[in-house]
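Recall the central idea of this unit: under ordinary conditions, the amino acid sequence of a chain determines the structure it adopts. In this exercise we apply that idea directly, starting from the sequence alone.
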Amino acid sequence: MCVKRRVLRFSALAAVGLLGLAACASDDGEQPDSAPTDNEAPATSPVATEVDLDQFAAALVTDAEVVGVAQDPPIEGFADDPVTMYLTLSEFEPTGRCASLLEELNSFSAPAVGGVSAKFIREVPDRSEESASQATRGAAVETMIFETTELTEPMAIYRDIPNACETLTSSEVEGAEATFTKVPGLDALHLEISDGQDVESLAVGGSSVNARFHMYMTAEQVTLQQAQDMFGAQAEKLQETFRDRVDSAATPSPTAEPSTE
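Accordingly, the structure predicted from this sequence is:
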């Protein structure tokens, strides 16, 4: 298990100009140059904590038939980093409540005790004009399991976005539409972007348990039913893992000593 000091961002990025959708995890967040290293911790720093990353990993759905084949490294851990979420629509200009909800989502940031992220690749039919009829291509599925330092329900926003946004028409790409559909019974949305000929799809959303433990997930090239099955399985696994857990995964390090003034 690898714990990295980094800002972990998941994005659901819809690029309509080339009709491409990318779901990605970016770990290029920069840390301040003045941040102290482990060996340079100030005397007033709090007692160090250890985060049980294994329990987060235990909450991941890894069945290849559900989420695809795990990539290398299969699971990455992180501790004491903020978590952000965002959904960016290129070539579309949302307005009204749709725009305000997307802005709220894109500005979300919450300190996290720690968690894990994993990426999988599913084989899906390649429906591009130049591909053979039986050709396939890889579609990414990314999952993050994490604990926030404060009680919160960050995934609830995905209940509201589909009704607020419904179908958007592009003013930049003729005939292009972005259609939002709520994934039934889940805090997740299914997004289809079409130029009148080709269609790209993305599902994004998550789930929370006791307002402390959360899962966030993106999946490319999935139908609404596939999204319901995939996100439903991960939400159920999260619930099974943490439903009886009310305390934090972080515990004081046995080697740490309280700081003195």
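The domain at 3-14+50-243 is CATH 3.40.1000 (Protein Transport Mog1p; Chain A).
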